[in-house]
């Protein structure tokens, strides 16, 4: 048995993160202020385990969302994302339906792994979580599977692992590649962030972390 095999025990997901299931989320929005700007697109990918116990991205859930009543749009944000609000091919749904399209598969993944709830993984994760929580509050959704304030942030993880904090540069450093023509799509950014999280987390599990109390000097 190799050292790598010894350092990657086949521990179920429910026992890895205190009962939380990592779920990668990316949102595209009408600006930077979650208190007033609209949520326009959201994608989520639960993190799964393969037969060897390695982290792998699961299936993507996705929704285009029509601006909720009372929210606003900064035109500059649309220049970045390329979103055409109201376009017939966008397949927009209302905010409640968009959240349902994300929450249902996330709850199913939480149940599948025997976890107690999901924890949001994101690149600048609190940005995504704040917009998600604002939408939940607007529609008074009662079945939000995500922890209300804890996150795993791949900015921090990539900064430690690769010395990079920008998603595109971190993805390149991890050998994942980056297509600038696909960037700022919630699906693409979520897929790349999920791959980045798995690359870093799987490498960490091969490094035989120090026992508690060691390495503190």
Description of the structure:
This protein has 217 residues and is α/β, with parallel strands linked by helices. The protein is built from 7 helices and 6 strands. The two termini are 32 Å apart.
Overall pLDDT, averaged? Answer: 92
Shape: globular
Estimate the helix proportion, in percent: 25-40%
Rg, alpha carbons:
18 Å
Structural class: alpha/beta
- What profile does the largest beta sheet have? 6 strands, mixed
Strand content: 15-25%
SSE layout and pairings?
Blueprint: H1 3-7, E1 20-29, E2 39-49, E3 55-57, E4 61-64, H2 75-81, H3 95-112, E5 117-122, H4 125-139, E6 146-153, H5 154-162, H6 167-173, H7 186-205
Helix pairs in contact: 5-7
Brief descriptors of the model:
217 residues, alpha/beta, 6-stranded mixed β-sheet, 7 helices, 19% strand, globular, disordered N terminus
Q: What's the gist of this structure?
A:
By secondary structure, the chain is an alpha/beta fold.
